[in-house]
Please model this.
Amino acid sequence: MPGIPAIVIIGYESPVVSERRDGNIIDVLGTTDFADRDSVINAHKAISRMSVLNKFCDWAFHGGRKAEALNALATLILYKHAGEGSADCSWIPGKQGEALAKLGDLLSPSGQEALLQNVNGNSVGNEFSKYLTAGDRCYLAGYVYCQQHNDDAAANSYGRAAVTYGQAGQPEQAAVAFMQAAEACMKAGQPKQQAADMYNQAADAYVEAGLSAQAADAYMKAGLPAEAAGAYVKAGLSAQAADAYMKAGLPAQAADAYMKAGLPAQAADAFRRADLFEKAAGAHWRAGLFVQAANDYWRVGQYVQAATAYRQADCPNLAAAAHSKAKGEQVTANIWDASAGEYLQIATNYMETADANMETADARWKAGQRGWATDTYKQATDTYKQAADTYKQAAETYLKAGKPKEAAFTFGQAASTFGQVAAAHRDAGQREQVAKAYLQAEVLYKKAGLDKRADDARLMASMYPSD
Model:
């Protein structure tokens, strides 16, 4: 076929034609030991130099490239004889398919006519029958028909070649012929199923030949992605197997193949399509997609794992929310400790925002922007309260983690922050809220074991009686 490289014959130059008689081909073949490399190469050299082949080439093949034709013929004669005796073909110079492609390129018009007559039963016993197997002759005929743009005839000839190769125990060559038959069917505009059947038979032949990757490609062309996936797996091509499984509507198998191929992001998507969200979470984690992993864990109720993933993604608010939904039996002291740390981070963020608001409000007040300043004081008040409540959550979480000292210190932070809430209420002109904030601070100071500060907070609350 066009594009297939020519065979390379090792060890000697172009043939020098001998005057030895035709019968010597049989003699040479009879003394060839196909298990012996030197014996096979010497036989190839001897056959390619015989005058009878030279005379055949004079009319059957184009001039000027006779040496190439002689070498290709010698290769195919050895394959024919080896096949008849079930001998090893490993040492035969050149590949069978490459030799056929070479002869196909070199056939003269008279050679093409004689070949087609031979294949179609109009010329029994000419040289093509002597030197080539029935499969090789049909395959070459398919090649000729392709050059003549007779695609229907090409499909038929390639199909005959494939069946003949299969019967002769040559599954790889049968597969190649089936593939060519399928392509000719498509060019001829035959029903798609006809080509699909040919591709399927090609795939089966490749499987028999132990060529899993080629089998998989053929199964894909046959529209059989599940079979293709299995062949890709056998060939160790996990990524291609995964794609084939997806086309076959088998996302769970595809996901496993993507994981094996080192493609966790694609695997996660496939796991999701299979409703395997826990596995999807693990795949997202491996891909470094921690938010997606956390979302998957959340979906299946694994809130501790979700919190860990959110924390890895630097999303402390979401991590804390996940921890708050975790069942008691799921949570260990270490997890509570980590959760408390997340609450502290959130509280710190609130404090930074509130402090910035207070600075802005003070500046606006000094600038005479009283109304604008008041609104900003109110914003600071709300944010300080969020910080105080979050410190309180952190302290309570430290208690669950079995860390009373950390809890006491954090209760103190919460109480102190409620003191800032009270001051912000005062600056915002919300005097009725000041006492409430100090009373909350009193309760938290007591939990922190800071009784003196609790008393001070109660005294400050008394200075802002409600109306």
In short: Confidence is low (pLDDT under 50) at residues 1-22. The chain has three domains: 23-274, 291-325, 332-462.
